[in-house]
Fold:
Amino acid sequence: MSEERTEKIRSELMHRREHLLIDLRQKNAEAASLLDAGVPDPGDMSLIDYLTDFLHLLGDSRREEIVKIDEALLRLKEGKYGICQRCEEPIPLERLEVQPYAPFCVGCQEAIEREESLRSGRPQEGKL
Ligand SMILES: [Zn+2]
Structure:
């Protein structure tokens, strides 16, 4: 990969990271102000619970993305960027354009997702 391209990806990743951090801070502030506002009516309690959960989930997905971006930046630094972390084949550029921090090629990503759903879908592990 050319120096120029690496630099472009790095700045895109940094930009995305910055955006996510700002977003995360905003969401946290929103959640905090919601809680600070108190519950005007006991009937609203479930709404506040719902909103707080929702904001937490949102925050978690942002945090996960930031971690992925950090990992991609590290791979970029080590010259391993764009290489599938599982089969070590190059990840197609079209995929990296859509998801610049993708650690796996499409095939491996699908295999991992299948494995994960198998694992979580298994009823009572160890009791076959
Ligand atoms: Zn792969």
